[in-house]
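FAQ: What does a ligand-bound record look like?

Like this one, built around tryptophan:
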Amino acid sequence: MNQSTRDGFTSNFGVLVATLGSAVGLGNIWKFPYLTGANGGAGFLLVYLLATLLVGLPLLMVETTLGRAARANAVTTFERIAPPNQRGWKIIGWMGFTAALLIMAFYTSVAGWVFAYIFKAFSGEIATTDPKIAGSAFGKLVSNPVSSLLWQWLVLALTGSIIMLGVSKGIEAVARKLMPLLFGLLLILCVRSLTLPGATEGLKFLFSPDFAKITPEVILTALGLAFFKLSIGMGCMLTYGSYFRAEQNIPATTTRVMFADLSVSLLAGIAIFPAVFAFGFAPAAGPSLVFMTIPAVFTSMPGGSLFMTIFFVLTAVASIGAMLSLLEVPVAVLTERYKLSRKRASLMTIGTILLLGVPAALSQSITAELKIFGMNPFDLFDFLSSNVLLPLGGILICLFVGWVYGLPQLEEQLGNRGKLGNEKLVQLVFVLVRFVAPLSIAIVLLHGLKII
Ligand code: TRP
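The answer part, i.e. the structure of the complex:
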């Protein structure tokens, strides 16, 4: 594709919200609280923070940098910037292509639950603070094969039609409008949850660590979440980086994205855990946690149904931004490498996810007993992507940048050819991606998967 006609983000703010739109999603509002709850609370949070700072942020910087340097999709980027005899690095792009499809298969089914909850909130059907009633309302939705599939398909149709509009008119335009609203609503929720009787126990759970609960599996899960949260390890941020403006200050932008993303996760945690303890929900409830707790917080406040409806609308919106970034990975590969039209590439991608998504969406009903490695398809796709493909992709990207791409080129790219005067920072990032990140990811991966 001709460089000058390549679509891209149009302003500093546009880059920031679109990148943030990819990072913020169900990972913050659904996954972060339930994994924190299931893995013992504050200890997990601490490991997650470390992983985000030492591994996540440096990787986010180098991934976006590679994309901007090559101005190409996840596969072609490595072909362009690897030395001629080392084109094999493009395997990273193909792993990302696969991971995007796997993640979308289960992500769309959770997004489907969120969409369904918009209507349930509006009708007052889920207005309850009773864990039993809340649990059965959720169970009824997810165990119904027909509605699970229909909601998932609706999500796919919606995101598919936005992705066809392109990068600036589709992705960027949607992100600009709705990110600020989400922050506002989360703040209201936190205030409400914190003023519930018994709220302090929830805060204790979230902020005072019990180190006995940190096992190798817990560490791998925290690392996987850090990858998932920042959309790194599979070329998604690389693809977005290829749409960055030439003068974008990448270290500043990515640091802002990381902090904003972290704040949304923490706000979601602060909204949920006080209520979990105040109303007697189980913190380790798993994927249903948010769907039961959030209604309970709202039900006990005036105007609850309205706020509850807005909350699920915004969560749906946040999930759309994230899904667009996942779709963009295969769509960019298909349009740029195989010269497919954007429309055709989008349809092929959506079609593949539709097929993969069926077993994932039916994991609480028809395919619940279809166990591979002891997991149903939903859990398997989640595990394979977050805990295997993303960390593996992360190691490879670090090794590529640290040992092949090298410091001089990284300095030139991350420093905008000397204009930013940030050599010290780039050197630190370089040491992190050359040694610290790949080693720690490898150790965590091997222990977490019980290979050593
Ligand atoms: N970060 C998104 C979230 O938290 C999910 C996501 C978008 C993602 N793009 C990704 C996860 C790429 C891994 C890789 O909801």
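Follow-up question: can I read anything off the structure? Yes, for example: Residues 3-50+99-231+248-384 form one domain.
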